[in-house]
Amino acid sequence: MTASLWFFNAEKPKVEAEHPEHSFADVVKELNRRWAAADSETKLKYESIAEQDKERYDKEMAAYKTDQLALGQQQHEANTGEELVKVEKKKKSKKKQKRGHRMAEQDNKQYESEMQNCMQSKNIIMTDVKRRHYVDPNMPKRPLSASFWFCNDERPKLEAEHPERSLVDILKEVSRRWAAADPETKLKYETLGAQDQERYDREMAAYKTDPLALDQKHEANTGEELVKVEVDE
């Protein structure tokens, strides 16, 4: 503190005791007046106290700075140590990752090698099982149309007349003849087709009322599956 502050600290209790009615501002004004009016000996006394206090402050500040410098150095060393530890951990982590990658690659190579050996020792044949339709032998035969009745009559004749022709050519000729047939011929086969349709309707009605036939129909296996067959060499 300055000399005036040391003077204020010493005189303030006296002023407050002498003038209890004074406010704090009035007390400070009175202290300033007394310091300004103080003699040289009084001022020298407090200036000496201020110099001693200044020396005390300088010593303590020097010691404080030394301590702070040492503390800062310790903190720096600690931080540096932590950084080194982190760096070392990162290095170890990277080494572990690289080692893990190498092991994974080795495992993959070993797996591929074993699979190749396995494939060479066995033939794996993939076959599709065609869709199988169950046909109830008790189910009525589907009715034939007029053109089919005509084909059944004309086809044997054409095969006898043209044995060199293929089935496709025979059917083409049957279709041509049916298209060119007169109304009387078509009426004949249309009547056969209608009669066959009536027959089918009667038999199907009876078939649907037969529980055994219905059970057999529901048990039909129409699924399609993929079978994997392994054949040892």
Secondary-structure map with pairings?
Blueprint: H1 3-18, H2 24-37, H3 40-121, E1 122-128, H4 146-161, H5 167-180, H6 183-208, H7 211-218, E2 226-232
Antiparallel strand pairs: 1-2
Helix pairs in contact: 1-2, 1-3, 4-5, 4-6
Key attributes of the depicted protein:
DNA Binding (I), subunit A, 233 residues, mainly alpha, two-stranded antiparallel ribbon, 76% helix
Structure summarized in a few sentences:
The chain has 233 residues and is mainly alpha-helical. The protein is built from 7 helices and 2 strands.
Question: How would you describe what is shown here?
Answer:
This protein is mainly alpha-helical and 233 residues long. Among the domains are: 3-80, DNA Binding (I), subunit A (Orthogonal Bundle); 146-209, DNA Binding (I), subunit A (Orthogonal Bundle). It has helices at 3-18, 24-37, 40-121, 146-161, 167-180, 183-208, 211-218, and strands at residues 122-128, 226-232. Helix 1 crosses helix 3 (40-121) and helix 4 crosses helix 6 (183-208). The relative contact order is 0.08. Residues 122-130 and 221-233 have low confidence and may be disordered.
Strand content: 5-15%
Q: Describe the biggest sheet?
A: 2 strands, antiparallel
Strand order of the largest sheet: 1-2
Terminal residue distance: 107 Å
Order of helices and strands: HHHEHHHHE
